[in-house]
Design brief:
Blueprint lengths: L2 E4 L6 E4 L6 E4 L2 H6 L3 E5 L3 E4 L3 E3 L6 E5 L6 E6 L6 E5 L16 E3 L4 E7 L5
Parallel strand pairs: 3-11
Antiparallel strand pairs: 1-2, 2-5, 4-9, 6-7, 7-8, 8-9, 10-11
Length: 124
């Protein structure tokens, strides 16, 4: 069963092989400022369609991609040293909504809640 997602203007589309099993909230300076939640996949599990612009910072281990039209950060892609991983902005996946509001520790993609894990200390 494939799962789809897109940026706000739908110029960038994402096709995932399955729904997320976990959502990661990273507290690095970029993720926390932009409010992104990540669903992690192997490269082979995600197809992207549409032009994105990239941004690399810090240790340059991942490249963040965003839509140049609407500005939504759609995903990040690891450089080779991380072994072909991709993080999809979970908030862009069809069916995503916060089950119970922001104070809850679970998120729902349409077929039941999934836990959220907090990644602390990502800035060193």
């Amino acid at each position: 069963m494939s799962v789809r997602g897109s940026c706000h203007c739908q110029a960038v589309r994402l096709i995932l092989t399955e729904r997320p099993h976990e959502v990661i909230a990273c507290d690095c300076s970029l993720c926390s400022r932009r409010g992104m939640l990540w669903a992690h996949y192997d490269d082979s599990q995600v197809a992207t369609d549409g032009y994105t612009e990239g941004y690399v910072w810090g240790s340059e281990t991942i490249r963040f991609h965003h839509c140049p039209k609407c500005g939504c950060t759609t995903h990040w892609h690891s450089n080779s040293q991380l072994g072909g991983r991709i993080g999809v902005n979970a908030r862009l996946i069809e069916g995503f909504h916060e089950a119970g509001g922001a104070s809850t520790s679970q998120y729902d993609f349409g077929d039941g809640p999934v836990p959220i894990s907090f990644l602390s200390g990502a800035n060193g």
